[in-house]
Structure formats: structure tokens, C-alpha cells
Amino acid sequence: MADKLHFSLVSPSRELFSGEVDHVIAPGTEGEFGVLAHHAPFMTTLKNGIVRVLEGDTVKMRIYVRGGFADVTPAGLTILAEEARNLTDAKAEDVDAEIEAARLKLLALDAADTKQFALQEQIAYLEGIRAALAN
Amino acid sequence: MPSLKDLKNRISSVKSTQKITKAMQLVAAAKLKRAQDAATAARPYAERMAAVLANLAASAGGGGPKLLAGTGKSDVHLVVVMTAERGLAGGFNSYVVKLARQKITALQAEGKTVKVLTIGKKGREQLARDLGSLLIGHVNLSDIKGNDFAESAMSVGLMLTKSYEAGEFDVATLIYSQFKNVISQVPTAQQLIPAKAPEGAPKIDLGGAIYTYEPDEAALLEALLPRYINTQILSALLESSAGEQASRMTAMDNATRNAKDLIKALNLKYNRARQAQITKELIEIISGAEAL
Description:
The structure holds 2 protein chains of 2 kinds. By secondary structure, chain A is of the alpha+beta class. In chain A, about 25% of the residues lie in helices and about 45% in strands. Chain A has 2 helices and 8 strands. In chain A, strands 1, 2, 3, 4, 5, 6, 7 and 8 form an 8-stranded mixed sheet that branches. In chain A, helix 1 (about 90-110) runs antiparallel to helix 2 (about 115-135). By secondary structure, chain B is of the alpha/beta class. Chain B has one domain (about 40-250): ATP synthase, F1 complex, gamma subunit (Pyruvate Kinase, Chain: A, domain 1, 3-Layer(aba) Sandwich), CATH 3.40.1380.10. In chain B, helix 3 (about 90-110) links the parallel strand 1 (about 75-80) and strand 2. In chain B, helix 1 (about 5-60) packs antiparallel against helix 6 (about 215-290) and helix 3 (about 90-110) crosses helix 4 (about 120-130). Chain B starts with a helix and ends with a helix. Strand 5 of chain A pairs parallel with strand 6 of chain B.
């Protein structure tokens, strides 16, 4: 593979990755898809799942994303994730602790609180990370 | 004429005030650095988001979901006023509130119904005095540590989109302090809903190819718009927080300098008074000796 794909993954808090890669596989809401260099312009929503960055045939990096968008243009692939975590540096124990903390927070809230919905999503996201780490 | 003791007390009280303002200035400077970093880190996401939205909105034409196209009227306006949780930041909060007041008065003069949502305690306190009847809600920022505003931005965004869908208002405007640089924060009014596609966003050159959307454009816009609004709120929160710290830093720097001048003046007065007293005592002794 001669041509490289410019890939950047940004979340509201920071830019997690930006650089040239061979191949990216992302979890679209209508199915997983792979992007190589010179992909046709394409835009989709994402569901919670793992974005894999491949160098040749080996997976170089795995990032867990929570929802968002993928936008493929001639300039490259951009993933706008609501939240993202690099699975290479994530630790199972830390994630467990976060799940526990989020659950306790949820229990402390009133049923009418608008934050409830956000917290439930947060828990689902953390559990997703946990499951991805177990593999 | 204050006594020597009074002057001494006064000097020591100003000195301790100076210590406090100096400490506050240093803390604000450290916090400002962090707030600025957070605001810078959030910028790529906001920019890309704006580009994607501009792109989608252009292909959707004038139509699109309600969040983009509007309700078709502009009778009820929601003014979201974003200020800080704490004072002692110079005119930071007052400038935002002043702009909010102008905006509200202008809208009322046009015969619109105005509702006000406050974010941050200070704005609420100032607006509650005369516009208390317009306040419909308040978002508390006091329990946020560091610059982790993502959750608040999300819940504010959710609240806004929900009440918009329920037809509680037609137009939402956000009034916040835009962070230009450390010495200048500009109170800005920005329309949140209906969402405005950013102007001047760089057009993406597709090289003649056609975009494929999955699911279709309408569904994508539907999913993107609430996120776009959340992003705008988040970046406003971050800028406002950076501005607050910058403004506090400047204010406390001025206060420290003021205290320094005051101490100097008081010291001079104290020394004069002391000398006058000594002279007086000497005269008393001499005239006493002469009388003998």
C-alpha cells in the first residue's frame, strides 16, 4: 500500500489522534466500515464501539468511541466522537472504579433529573470499554 | 486626626488585604493557564463540527429539521445568560449582565415574550433584582471541578432542545463572555436555536465526487444538530471560564497595586503624625524647663 490515509480523531475535550495511517475500521450505525486512502466522500453516524487503526494488516491502535460522526473527504477521514478512550492505555481496574462511581451517582439522583439520561449513557459507554478491554 | 494606633491598625489591615489579593491573582493566573489549555484543546472538535454542519446544511438547502429551519415565528425568545459562579473578577459578570439587559429590553420593546435561563450564580443574582419574573431556570456550575464542563454542556443542550421541541420558545440566544485574550473579554450574543450554520467555513473540495450519506442527510442532520448546539455551549463555557480567570487576574493585580499605593500613603501619614507628636513632646519639655 503506497498511499496513506490522513486520519484524525477528535473528541470535545481534545484531539486524540492525527496522522497518516493505512486503514481505519470504524463502527457505523449501519454497520462497520473500513476506510482506505482515496475513499469516496462519505458521512455517517457512529455507534459505541471500537475504532481500529491498521498499519498494513496489523492493528496498531484501538480506540473506544461513544457515538459521533465519521466524515470522509478527499482530505482524509475525520471522526468526531462524543467521547473516546485509547484502549492501549486504559486499565480495567480504573474503568471498573469509574463504572462504580457513575452507578452511585445515578442512584443519588432524582427520577426527574435531566442528568439521569446522560449518566445512563455514560455507564453504557464505560461498560463498553470494559468489555472491549476484556477481549 | 486619627491617632497613631489607628493608623497602625489601618496599615496592617491594608497589608493583609494586599496579601489576599496577591494570592488570588496568583491562583487566577494558574487557573487561567489551565482554562486556556482546555479551551484550545476543545477547538479542533468545534471547528470540524462546524465544517461538517456547514457542509450538510448547504446540501439540505433552506429546509431541514426544526432545529435548523426554525419554528417559522419569533414570538418567544429565550435568553441564556452565562456568567461565573464567583465575583471579585472586575467587571466580568456585570458586562455580560449589561449586554443581557440591553438584549432583553430590545426584545421586549419589539413586543416579544422573553424568558431567561441563567448559567452561573452571579448572573442570576444580578438579574433576579429587576427581571426575576422572567427567569425560568438556572444551571449551577459550582460543583464542577477543573474545566470538566462536558456534562453540564450536555445537560443544558438537552434541556434546550427538549423545551424547544415542546414549543416553549422560538429563538434561543446565548450571551456569554468571549475570550479574545488575557486583557480583553468581549460580551457576545450568539444565536443557538435555530442553529446557524457557521459562515465562512471552508468549503470542502470533493474533486467532483458526490457525498454518500449513511443514514440519509435528514437523519444525519437530526443527529448532528443537538451535538452542534452542545458543542457551542461547551466552547462558550470554556471561554467564559478562561475569561473569568483572566478578568480576576487583572482585577486582583490592580487591587494589589492599589493596596501598595495606599500603604505608602498611610505610612507617610503615620511617620508625619509620629514626628509631630515627638516635636510636641519636646516643646512641652523645653517650655517646662524654661518656666523654672
